[in-house]
Structures are given as structure tokens and as C-alpha cells.
Design brief:
The chain starts with a helix and ends with a helix. The strands form 2 sheets. A two-stranded antiparallel sheet has the order 1-2. It contains 37 helices and 4 strands.
């Protein structure tokens, strides 16, 4: 293995050691299920010790191994995966403050912990195998240089098997030579060559130390089958001199040649200073085959590329970590172009905005919704895949601690869910681990039909509610362990409920009775009760069951959403109709215009999705069309955020018409950016015409000074632009009006390279001031884009002036050269028309 790969492996092992130690420390702080956790902690401890031993083997100069780098990296990677899975599962179970819920979740995840325990044990066995292979190969490497040692050892093994140990051996007992690392040293002389070997043997049952002198005494008392010569046997039988019982210092090149055999005076060695330079000249090697014989002049300098490769290995092995991992975001308004492109599913415009620097993949609204949140909620699969590919953060949470995958999961469980929503969920997560973050109760699971595959009983919602009622009716001092035995072979949902009651009773020993209201308990992510989820998934039958058994229909989530909001989330008509029926009976407790944390009513949410039937039901029930949310937008603004189509036009028609008994609609309601609703319908001429017919004004402009024509030119809506110019003749004022950047609609069309819109405007006589920001005129933009048709329109227009320069002194000729268009017809036209004379 090359040194660079070794550095990467060592760094990976170091990171794995740190991770395993962190998990072990976390395990020691946990108190629930101590017996089961102690077994798991013991396995992690053994894994950590085995990992340390393997780390020592890799770092040792004396150790030899031929285990491939790929196998080692795979083993370390699998170990990382197991440790991370264990850490993640422990965090999921023990992040809940309620001990009863913790114990309940422990029962749910017990099988998973058992599987992880088995995986950790298999990793330990694998590490032990690696260490054993390394020791064996090291021994074989030593014997390769001295075949006599292998022969002598094989002879000793035969004799040790055939003959018992002689108790009269002059060697002292092992207890007189304690050693922390169970090490032994042996020194022998074979064929005139002194050989010293040091090895370490660690075992759970004990340590065995052997000496060559004892082996020679066995050999004298038995018939040896070895092939040693008489001179070698004589040397083996001779007494070992005291001066030869030293540990030979190995050469840095792991060679064992005569030139490196030196005896050291141990008495004087202890008196010398540790940091003392050795003035003696280095003993040069006399053996030509020895690696130490290579002179320093033959060694080349280490190239810089090796250092770069080593650093890349260190970074990839996570051995170098950033001290503070701060996520940075680009805060944008809710109505930004990037957000609008994502909501509309306009991927091409989004890509163009990101590539031009107008937007970034990390754009985030003030409420914490990133582009990825918006794409997941709007069910835009292609946009989600694009943003994830760009590296958008999938773990970012909004104000309600909801990640993009949570919004995707919500849509995948809705009444109108299709395969598309499930595919979006798969983009974020390949497994179902994210469901554990919700902390669903058994009642939630029955409502959402999230039974485990191993649960063959799958108890119905009514049976689970009845079982909870029976547990609540149990007298004080109930032996819940007896209940667990009784339901041991039943559905795990029963055991989960029993464990929650048992844990609560164990914690509150003074309490006379344990009561749990699981029917109204909220989940951890959306803070929805089972009734909310039944409403969102369109299960009116289960809503009736919950209401019948005492569920509270007036509970709101942490984001102030009620069951009407939940029904509109997924266009669940039956659930919405049942919720509105409850509203009609209890209008003071269930508000049809209830605003969530963003100020959105149910009607706004229905308008954004163009859920025509939901909008109709809400308007007929008396929903207010003029309710404003936090950005001062009304339901019409939200309808403009949806995709174009017939349902969008029907939604606009319903909002404009009302139910006849409501107050008149404020059709020109401007939001905090002074954008009226018509600005959000620029891609749909039918909706624009409908709003104009109901009195929408065309002369409004936003805070940036952009009017209707500015926005049409910015977004490149040439068809709508041409139609408006033909239908309404009083558009001259809008044509010459400038925004705060000093640009007319024509200049904005040129700035955004919307050639069709520019050509349409150049067909009119009065286009206003022909010079925009930075002194750029239409002739400069045409030269920059290199469009012949546009250039001819500009040159033939009455507003064209020869020799115009920008604020930095550039003529159209220079602009064309900078853009690489000073050739062909562009060059000819500019030379002909733009000359001073």
C-alpha cells in the first residue's frame, strides 16, 4: 500500500474511533432500558478496542500485511455506516423529553437495535481477522529472511504437542515477569547470525510466553524429527548468554542484515539525555541486497502532488473538520422571481436566473422556506431534482421545523396524491427513517395506514381507541407487565400503548391513576392530531369515528392551522364538507377564515392550488375573499401563483363573482411590494381579460416603478404584450414611463434579451426615452446580442441617433467587438448606419 493511501486509511480510522467514542459516551448517559443498553454498550466497547488494535497494527513499522486497500476502505466505511445508524436511532428514541414516549419508542426500535448489535459484533470479528492476518504475515516475513527460524518453530510445536511441559524447567514462573502488553522476547543464534524477535499476544484467556532455551531442553529429552545440523543443535543446546538477552532495535527499513546488528550498553543508556545528538558516523550497510544500502543521493524529492493527494485523502476521511458549521442563506422576499418560477414549475427560467446570478439554490424566504421547500410543496419533481443536484440543503427547517422531505411526505399522503408525490419523497430519502421523526402514536398510524410489514393483525382505529379506553379505565396499581405478557403475540401497536402506560406509572409512583389522551395527541413535525391527518388524507369516515369517540375538532397546530386548512391541503372534498358542517354548528369555535402563522386562510390555500371545488365550497360557506396575509396579499394573488389552465380561470371567475351576499372584492388590492393581482397573471391573457372586465386598473406600478408593460417585457410575454397593445389604445403613457432604474419597457426587454418583446415595441412610433441606465441605448443592446433583425429595427426607428456612446464612452462598434459580433452583416449595418458622416 502506498503511503498516501495509508495516510487516508489512518485518518478514516481516527474519525471512526472518534465517532464510536461519541456513541459510547452517549450510551453511558442514557437511563431507560439499562439492561438492553448495557449489552449494546459492551459491544460498542469491544468494537472500539478492536479498532484501536487494528490502528496500532497499521501504524507499526514492524507489521506487514497484504490486505488490499479496497477491502480495508470498505470495512471502515461499513463501520462508519453502522455507527452513524446507531447514533441516529439513539437520537430518534431519546430526543423526546417525555420518558413514557421514550420507552414506547424503545420498544418500537428494539429489533433495530438488536440488528445493529449483530452488525457491530460482525465488525469486531472482521477487525480481529485483519489483525490476525497482519500478525501471521509479519511472522512469515521474518521467517522468509531466516528459514531456520520457521524450521525450529515447527519442530518446537511438534514437541510441545507430543510432550508435556517439564515442571523442572529452570525458567521462572510467568507471574514473576508481569507485562502490561503481554509481550515476550526471544533471542537465538542460528548459523552464526543473531536473530531477535519481539511479538505481542493478547488473549481473553491469558498469555503464553515461550523461550528458546526451554524448547532446547524439550528437544534433548525427546527424539527430534527436525533436520538441523549438529552445529546448530549445539548452538541451541548451549546456555543463552546474559548479554544476548536484549531487544534488538529494528532497522527503519525492516531489514535484518548483519550490518545493523549492534549491542547497546543498557547501563550507560539510562544515564544519557533523551535529546542528545549522536555524533557517531552512521554505520553503512555492507550487504548489497539491503534496502539501507541505498544512498541519500539516489532518493528523489517528494513531489507536491503527493502532498495534495494526502490532503485530499484527509479531507475525504473527515479527519479535518470545520469547527463551526454555519449555514448561509440568501434571504429573498416571498414574491421574488425565483420563488415564482418554482411555484409555477418554470424550470428553464429558474435555471437562467441561477446561472445569471439573479438567484441561488439557497434562496430562502423570511419564513424559512427555501426554494427546495417550495418545490416540494408545489409538487415540482424536475425542480426538486435540479436543486438537489446543485447542492441545495435538504436538512434546512422552516419556522415549523419542517424539512423539504416533510412537505413532500404530506403531499404523498394527501387525498389527491399520485406517484409523482412519492417520487419526490424518494429524491430526499431512500428509506423510511424520516417517518420516525414524526413520533406518530398508534392512533396516527391507524389513521395513516402506516402499519409495519410484520404486523399481520393491523388493528382498526376503533379497536385501538377501545384498547386505549380500557387502559385508561384500568385501576391504580395495575400490573402493566401482565398486560404485556397477554398481548405479547399481538400487534406491536398494543405493546406500544401498554409500554407508554407502564413507563408513566413507573415514573409517577405517587399518582393514583394513569390516563393518556392519545386521540388528541399531536405529532412532532406538523403538530397535527389524528383528526387533522384524517382530514388531510380525505378520510371523512375516520373523522366521524374520532369525533364520535371524543376527539376535539377545534385544536390548532403550532402554525395555527385547523382541520379546514388540513382538508384544503390535499383537496379533500369530503373532509372539507364535513369540517364545514362542524363550522356551521360551532362558528365561534371553528373559524372558516382562521389565519395560520403566515396569515393564510383556507380560501387562499385553495386558490393557490386552483382547487375549484374547494374554492366553491368555501365561498358558499361565507369565506372572506378580501382577507390579507402577512405580505398583504389576497386570495387573487394566490391564484396567480398557480399554473395556467382552465382550473385557474375557473378559480379567478369564482373569486371575482363571489356568492352574492359578500362584500365587493378589492380587485386591485396591492401587496407590500405594491403589486396588484393582475401582475401575477401576465402569462394568461384570459385571466387578465377577466380581471380587466371586473375593473382591474392597468396604470398601477410596484415599488420598483415597474408597470404592467415593464413586467410583460421582463418576463418575455410577447403574446400578451401584443394583445394588450392592440386591444387598448391608451397605452402610450405606460410605454414612455420609466422605472426607478431609469428604464422604459423597451429597455427592460433589451436588458433581459427578450427580442420578440423589443421588436413588438419598436413597431410603435413613440417608445419613450431611448437611453436607459448606464447610457445604454437600443443600438448598444442590439450590437451586444448580435441579432440582425433587432438591429435593423433599431436602425430604422425614428428614435435612432448616430454616434451614441454609453456612460463609459463605448460606441456600438466597440460593444459589438467586445461581444465578438463585429463581423458579417452586423459589421456592415453598423458601418453603414452608425457612421458619424
Amino acid at each position: 500500500m502506498d503511503p498516501i493511501s495509508a495516510i487516508g486509511l489512518l485518518a478514516s480510522i481516527s474519525s471512526l474511533l472518534k465517532a464510536s467514542k461519541g456513541v459510547l459516551d452517549f450510551l453511558k448517559t442514557l437511563k431507560d432500558a439499562e439492561k438492553d443498553l448495557s449489552q449494546l454498550a459492551n459491544s460498542v466497547t469491544l468494537f472500539e478496542e478492536a479498532l484501536k488494535g487494528f490502528d496500532r497494527v497499521l501504524r507499526s513499522r514492524q507489521a506487514k500485511h497484504n490486505i488490499s486497500e479496497e477491502i480495508l476502505r470498505n470495512a471502515i466505511s461499513e463501520g462508519f455506516t453502522t455507527v452513524r445508524d446507531l447514533e441516529k436511532r439513539l437520537t430518534q428514541v431519546y430526543k423526546t423529553e417525555n420518558s413514557a414516549l421514550r420507552r414506547m419508542k424503545w420498544v418500537q426500535h428494539k429489533s433495530g437495535f438488536e440488528n445493529l448489535d449483530e452488525r457491530i459484533k460482525s465488525h469486531c470479528a472482521q477487525l480481529h481477522s485483519f489483525v490476525s492476518l497482519a500478525h501471521m504475515e509479519t511472522f512469515l516475513a521474518v521467517c522468509n529472511q531466516h528459514p531456520q527460524l520457521l524450521e525450529a518453530c515447527s519442530t518446537m510445536v511438534d514437541e510441545m504437542i507430543t510432550e508435556p511441559l517439564n515442571d523442572t524447567s529452570p525458567l521462572p514462573a510467568l507471574s514473576k515477569y508481569p507485562s502490561a502488553n503481554s509481550s515476550y522476547s526471544a533471542s537465538m543464534s542460528l548459523g552464526g547470525t543473531t536473530l531477535s524477535a519481539t511479538s505481542s499476544i493478547s488473549s481473553g484467556k491469558g498469555s503464553i510466553a515461550t523461550s528458546m532455551s526451554s524448547a532446547s531442553s524439550h528437544r534433548r529429552n525427546s527424539k527430534s524429527k527436525g533436520s538441523l545440523s549438529e552445529s546448530e543443535l549445539a548452538i541451541l543446546d548451549s546456555d543463552v548468554k546474559e548479554q544476548s538477552l536484549i531487544i534488538r532495535r529494528a532497522c527503519r527499513y525492516d531489514c535484518y542484515c548483519k550490518c545493523h546488528t549492534q549491542f547497546t550498553d543498557t547501563s550507560s543508556k539510562s544515564k544519557t539525555r533523551i535529546y542528545r545528538q549522536n555524533n557517531k558516523s552512521k554505520v553503512e550497510c555492507t550487504e548489497p541486497d539491503c534496502a539501507a544500502a541505498t544512498t541519500s543521493s539516489q532518493k528523489g524529492a517528494i513531489p507536491v502532488s503527493m502532498f495534495k493527494k494526502a490532503m485530499s485523502h484527509l479531507v475525504s476521511a473527515n479527519s479535518i473538520k470545520i469547527r463551526y458549521n454555519l449555514n448561509t442563506y440568501r434571504m429573498v422576499p416571498e414574491g421574488s422571481n425565483a420563488m415564482r418560477y418554482v411555484k409555477h414549475g418554470n424550470l428553464e427560467k429558474l435555471k437562467l436566473a441561477i446561472e445569471s446570478g439573479e438567484a441561488t439554490p439557497w434562496d430562502t424566504a423570511p419564513d424559512g422556506w427555501s426554494l427546495l421547500h417550495t418545490a416540494a410543496y408545489a409538487r415540482q419533481l424536475a425542480t426538486v431534482e435540479y436543486l438537489v443536484q446543485l447542492g441545495a440543503d435538504t436538512e434546512t427547517s422552516d419556522l415549523g421545523t419542517r424539512k423539504p422531505v416533510d412537505l413532500a411526505f404530506l403531499k404523498s399522503r394527501g387525498a389527491d396524491a399520485t406517484k409523482l408525490e412519492k417520487d419526490i419523497v424518494q429524491v430526499f430519502s431512500k428509506d423510511d427513517d424520516y417517518i420516525d421523526d414524526y413520533e406518530f402514536t398508534p392512533i396516527h398510524i391507524a389513521v395513516l395506514d402506516l402499519y409495519e410489514p410484520t404486523d399481520t393483525e393491523r388493528p382498526t382505529l376503533e379497536r385501538l381507541i377501545e384498547f386505549v379506553d380500557n387502559a385508561n379505565n384500568a385501576p391504580a396499581g395495575t400490573k402493566w407487565a401482565h398486560w404485556k405478557i397477554k398481548y405479547q403475540k399481538r400487534s406491536p401497536l398494543y405493546l406500544t400503548i401498554i409500554e407508554q402506560f407502564r413507563a408513566t406509572a413507573a415514573e409517577n409512583a405517587d399518582a393514583r391513576k394513569v390516563i393518556h389522551n392519545l386521540v388528541d395527541q399531536k405529532d412532532r413535525k406538523f403538530h397535527w392530531t389524528p383528526l387533522h391527518w384524517a382530514s388531510a388524507t380525505g378520510q371523512a369516515d375516520k373523522m366521524k369515528i374520532l369525533i364520535k369517540t371524543g376527539a376535539d375538532p377545534f385544536i390548532q397546530s403550532n402554525l395555527n392551522a385547523n382541520i379546514i386548512h388540513a382538508a384544503v391541503e390535499s383537496n379533500a372534498l369530503e373532509s372539507l364538507a364535513y369540517s364545514l358542517e362542524i363550522y356551521k354548528r360551532h362558528p365561534k369555535h371553528l373559524n372558516i377564515d382562521q389565519a395560520n402563522i403566515w396569515g393564510e386562510s383556507a380560501l387562499m390555500m385553495a386558490a393557490q392550488r386552483c382547487s375549484v371545488d374547494c374554492v366553491k365550497l368555501l365561498i358558499e360557506a361565507g369565506a372572506d375573499r378580501n382577507v390579507r396575509q402577512e405580505n398583504q396579499q389576497v386570495a387573487l394573488h394566490y391564484a396567480g401563483l398557480s399554473d395556467t389552465g382552465e382550473s385557474r380561470r375557473e378559480t379567478v371567475a369564482l373569486l371575482c363573482k363571489g356568492n352574492g351576499n359578500q362584500t365587493s372584492l378589492d380587485i386591485d388590492a396591492q401587496d407590500e411590494d405594491d403589486r396588484p393581482p393582475i401582475f401575477d397573471f401576465l402569462d394568461d391573457l384570459g385571466c387578465m381579460q377577466m380581471l380587466i372586465d371586473h375593473g382591474a386598473r392597468l396604470d398601477l406600478f410596484d415599488t420598483s416603478g415597474n408597470n404592467l408593460l415593464h413586467h410583460l417585457c421582463i418576463q418575455g410575454e410577447n403574446e400578451q404584450l401584443s394583445s394588450l397593445l392592440q386591444l387598448y389604445t391608451d397605452m402610450n403613457l405606460l410605454l414612455i414611463q420609466k422605472n426607478q432604474d431609469g428604464n422604459t419597457a423597451l429597455i427592460e426587454a433589451l436588458r433581459h434579451e427578450n427580442v420578440d418583446c423589443a421588436v413588438t415595441l419598436l413597431g410603435r412610433k413613440d417608445i419613450g426615452d431611448a437611453v436607459g441606465q448606464d447610457g445604454m441605448a437600443p443600438i448598444h443592446y442590439a450590437a451586444k446580442m448580435g441579432n440582425v433583425t433587432l438591429l435593423k429595427k433599431v436602425l430604422n426607428h425614428s428614435s435612432f441617433v448616430r454616434g451614441l456612446k454609453t456612460h463609459d464612452g463605448k460606441t456600438a462598434r466597440v460593444v459589438a467587438m467586445e461581444a465578438g459580433h463585429w463581423r458579417g452583416e452586423i459589421k456592415s449595418l453598423l458601418t453603414q448606419y452608425n457612421a458619424v458622416i
